[in-house]
């Protein structure tokens, strides 16, 4: 009985701390466009894989200009990590010449349920 009481107290305490942490966490949103050899090299596939790994939401797609553009949303630190990945890493066969980020802001709620690859332009 005593073990059950302690376990219940610990679980309840942990549950409330987790909820408080999630509620206090801000959501960052940023639009991006990546220039270079980023089409036909699985760039979008690797971008989705990295976004999923970081727990981010948003989308990406090829453009008619030969770039990849999209939007990412999530915890600020994870969005910053993704921005660095988009600047420097990409897919193994890609060549990133330039990464532009616009409309960087905090939002009160997510606009997307997950990270998706949209149909080409």
Automatic annotation (TrEMBL):
InterPro entries with a match to the protein in the record: Acylphosphatase, Acylphosphatase-like_dom, Acylphosphatase-like_dom_sf, Acylphosphatase_CS
Keyword Hydrolase: yes
Enzymatic reactions: an acyl phosphate + H2O = a carboxylate + phosphate + H(+)
Pfam families cross-referenced by the UniProt entry: Acylphosphatase
EC number of the protein: 3.6.1.7
Single Gene Ontology MF annotation: acylphosphatase activity
Domain of life: Eukaryota
Statement: the UniProt record of this protein carries the keyword Hydrolase: yes
The protein's name in its UniProt record: Acylphosphatase
Source organism: Parnassius mnemosyne (clouded apollo)
Lineage of the organism: Eukaryota, Metazoa, Ecdysozoa, Arthropoda, Hexapoda
